[in-house]
Every structure is written in C-alpha cells, then in structure tokens.
Design goal:
There is one protein chain. This protein has helices at residues 4-7, 14-21, 24-32, 47-52, 55-69, 79-82, 157-167, 170-182, 188-196, 204-213, 221-232, 271-274, 276-279, 284-299, 312-315, 318-327, and strands at 12-13, 36-40, 43-46, 75-76, 97-100, 108-109, 113-116, 125-126, 146-149, 152-155, 239-246, 249-258, 263-267, 306-310. By secondary structure, the chain is α/β, with parallel strands linked by helices. The chain has two domains: 4-213, no CATH class; 221-327, 3-Layer(aba) Sandwich (Endonuclease, Chain A), CATH 3.40.960. Helix 8 (170-182) packs across helix 10 (204-213). The longest helix is centred in the C-terminal third of the chain and has 16 residues, at 284-299. The radius of gyration is 22 Å and the shape is globular.
Length: 334
C-alpha cells in the first residue's frame, strides 16, 4: 500500500493555505502565471512537476486532492482504491476519482469525484501494511468493507476487486484481480463473498465469469491483458510461468506455454528494459542481449516448436497480436 501523502508531496491546496500554511490567493496568482497547474478545485501542483508525471502518478495526485479538499471523510473505491493498494490499471486511469458513500441516494459525478451510492459493511479497520511486504492472503479482507491507512479510508482489497469486476470493463478488472491474487492480498473465495453482498448487480454474471478466468500466475498487467486476448481469439488456455532448464541449468520462466502445440509466448513491456527493478544494474543493451541468449536456449529445447514475442503495441492492436501468435504456430482450440 502506498503512502498517499509521501507520493504527492508537491500537492498544494487552498484549503490548507487558508488555515495558515500559505496564501490561497497566491496559489491562484501562480496558476494564472503558469507556475502552477490547477488539477482540481482548490488543488495545485508545480507546472514542471505535473508535466513530468505519468498518467498513473497524476491519478494518485487527483486522489490526494480529493482527500485533502473533502469537507467530510470519504472512502476511496474502485480504481481510486486499487491505486493506493499498489494494484495496476491497464491504460489511462479513469478521469474521475471514485468514492463510495453509503449515505448517498444516487450515484453521481462531480468535478473531481464519481460517487457510488453503495453500502459499506462493518466498521473501519486501521491497517499499517506494505503491499510488497508479503502480508499474506486475506490480511486486508476481514468482515469490514473498508480500511484506514495513514488517515486515508479505502475499500479493502477484496471489496475493491469486487467493485471493479462489477462496474468496470472485464479487461481492467482482470488486470486488477490478477495482481491482487499474485501479491496474495486476497483470494477468489473472498472476492466472491464481496460480490455476494451486491446480489442485485446487473453485471453479476459477467463479474463471476471474469473472476473465474483470473490467474495469480500473471506477473504484469501486460500478461493479464495478453491472456484476455488469447481467450478472445479462441486459442487454448496457456500454462503460466512455466520453468525451463537445459544442460546448463535453469533458463527461466516463460509468460505463456502451450505444451500441446509446443509454443512459447512472451510479453515484453518497456519496463523490462527501463525499470531499475528489472534491469538489476544492467544497461538496456545488456538486457536485450540477455533476452536474446535466453530465447536462443529456449528455442534449442526439443519440445519448443514455436516462439512468439510481443509488446504493448500489439496489445493496442489485437489483430497484430493474433497474427503474431498464428505465425508462431498457435491454433484455435477445437
């Protein structure tokens, strides 16, 4: 779980300026002069900082803006809860920050937030956790629908997954749920229990189907999206994270493997070549060479008859992905 305040240290609000932190009128003057960007009513960020942020980081700033400009406590939900939990989102995040208000009569959209008029069961649970710290299954999925972390209230992981399954596209929901299962923050039984609390939801059958297709083996959002397209193309379900060895030892794990067809599938996101976590001190050129050496070892195995590699460009143009998989020897299930 991220520290929302630490991740948005550059956020300035008129509300805080009015109580002595600064001059709220100065914020307006700086915005008019181009030194600040107004990201929400009464919330500003330095122009240079804002221009350097990725869409996901900007979304986190808008969440923080909603938190710090709210007139009463709010509970973040859906995509706005997934982000603080450290769960990925495919593509651009939603334009509005989603919150759940059990006192609201109807769901509605404001300038910054989208309010979901939905019940919240149980009392708020205070948690002090790190998503990457290996807290174990179910730590955040007790009887209560929402928790509080460092003063920020948000739906629990299982409730967040259920909300996204019901109220967002299956593609986005698969990315969120796969990651939650992969990080062992919840499990399908708990998510299904949260779905049961909204039995009248029209999207319930679709949500159940999507949940049933989610898999903790997916190691990235791109892998989750790839699997959704593979299913949509009518191809057989792949084995995820298959280990491979040759006479020299462990080669590694592949994203997808179709044993009946002898085809390996690998999703290459830009993060593999640009992120320090994946490079582990190597240059991008060294990463490319290591990947080529790894692929050569995999292709040399007798059971491997085809190898498909694709990136984000293919995921944004599914016809290209399908052609890549067909060229490697993949065929629709019979």
């Amino acid at each position: 779980m991220i520290d929302l305040a630490a991740q948005t240290s550059g956020l300035l609000t008129a509300k805080e300026a009015r109580v002595g932190v600064g001059d709220s009128r100065a914020l307006q003057r700086d915005a008019a002069a181009g030194r600040l960007v107004r990201i929400a009513h009464g919330a500003y960020v330095e122009t240079d900082r804002w221009s350097s942020l990725l869409p996901r980081q900007r979304f986190v700033y808008r969440i923080a803006a909603a938190q710090r400009t709210a007139v009463r406590p709010i509970v973040f939900s859906h995509a706005a809860a997934a982000a603080p939990w450290g769960l990925p989102w495919w593509g651009a995040p939603p334009g509005l920050v989603e919150v759940t208000d059990p006192a609201a009569r109807t769901s509605r959209a404001h300038r910054l937030t989208r309010v979901h008029a939905l019940p919240l069961a149980g009392d708020v649970v205070d948690v002090d956790v790190d998503v990457d710290g290996g807290d174990g299954v179910g730590v955040h999925d007790g009887d209560s629908d929402f928790v509080e972390h460092l003063g920020v209230r948000l739906t629990s992981v299982g409730r967040t997954c259920a909300d996204v399954l019901l109220d967002h596209r299956s593609l986005d929901a698969t990315v969120v749920v796969d990651a939650a299962l992969h990080l062992e923050l919840t499990d399908p039984v708990r998510i299904a229990a949260f779905l049961d609390r909204r039995p009248a939801a029209r999207a319930h059958a679709r949500a159940r189907r999507t949940l049933g297709a989610c898999d903790p083996g997916a190691d990235s959002a791109g892998e989750s999206v790839s699997r959704v397209f593979v299913h949509g193309f009518g191809f057989p379900a792949p084995v995820l994270q298959q280990p491979w060895r040759d006479t020299f030892g462990l080669i590694g794990f592949t994203d997808m493997w179709w044993p009946d067809l002898g085809v390996i599938g690998e999703y290459d996101g830009d993060v593999k070549y640009l992120s320090d976590r994946w490079r582990r001190g190597r240059t991008p050129e060294q990463v490319v060479k290591d990947e080529k050496d790894r692929e050569d070892r995999l292709r040399a195995l007798p059971e491997v008859r085809g190898f498909a590699r694709w990136g984000t460009a293919e995921l944004r143009s599914p016809d290209r992905l399908r052609a890549t998989l067909l060229a490697a020897g993949l065929r629709p299930a019979t």
